[in-house]
Design brief:
Blueprint (H helix, E strand, L loop, with lengths): L1 H9 L3 H18 L6 E8 L2 E9 L6 E6 L6 E2 L4 E4 L5 E5 L17 E4 L2 E4 L9 E5 L7 E8 L4 H4 L4 E6 L7 E6 L10 H20 L2
Parallel strand pairs: 1-12
Antiparallel strand pairs: 1-2, 2-10, 3-6, 4-5, 5-8, 6-9, 7-10, 8-9, 11-12
């Protein structure tokens, strides 16, 4: 099968062959990228503060602490608490470390919310240890996404301190929860994608020289 594909490609005009090889390389690059760890971003959007979260969580190494039904408070910077998404039954997990607060503000309730309910509480004394909650029945590694909006609010009025806050456990992929207050959406990939694209372009240049086009 592979030999037949190569034979067919050799029959293509040089420039078409070049484009075909490059397209295959780029498609392969992006198709193998794993899901990123869960990241929640809080941004000032006009007169509102908007939270958006997405990614996957690897629960390996954490200890389940049972069912939790959240109340209506969605943000508590002074206890390292943020709950985003539509309220639902949650499963709790402990066994990680990270910041105990991300500002001086007390509890605040969002006006709008959507998506999967994900909840983290960094202050250790209330529940005996920092606690992470995910939707009941969540399968480790599955994709999650959520959002919430505080209308007529600012970072200052909510008592938020801009910065990046990370709770982590273990050394595997997606074993962390990142909160970004201010800044861009999502977490950077450390330049991996850019580096791989660079290698792809170098390979393309080498192929062009070899084909003389």
């Amino acid at each position: 099968m592979v030999n037949a594909t190569i034979m067919g490609m050799k029959a293509l005009p040089k420039k078409l062959l070049l484009l075909t090889v490059f397209a295959i390389a780029v498609t392969s690059l992006f198709s193998v990228r794993p899901a990123q760890a869960f990241t929640e971003t809080l941004q000032q959007v006009g007169a509102n503060v908007v939270a958006t979260g997405s990614g996957a969580i690897n629960l390996t190494g954490l200890t389940g602490v049972g069912l939790f039904t959240p109340g209506i408070d969605d943000l508590g910077p002074n206890v390292g608490y943020i709950q985003t998404g539509v309220h639902s039954n949650l499963d709790g997990y402990q066994g990680f470390s990270g910041p105990t607060s991300f500002g001086s503000g007390g509890f605040a309730v969002a006006n709008l919310y959507s998506g999967n309910c994900v909840d983290i509480w960094g202050e250790p004394t209330t529940y005996g240890a920092p606690t992470l909650w995910v939707p009941t029945g969540y399968v480790s590694g599955g994709l999650l996404s959520d959002s919430m909006t505080f209308t007529g609010a600012t970072f200052a009025s909510l008592g938020l301190t801009p910065g990046t806050y990370v709770w982590s456990w273990g050394e595997g992929a997606n074993q962390n929860f990142t909160l970004i207050i201010g800044g861009g959406q999502g977490a950077p990939d450390g330049g991996t994608t850019i580096s791989l694209l660079g290698f792809a372009f170098l390979g393309l240049a080498a192929l062009r020289r070899k084909l003389g086009c």
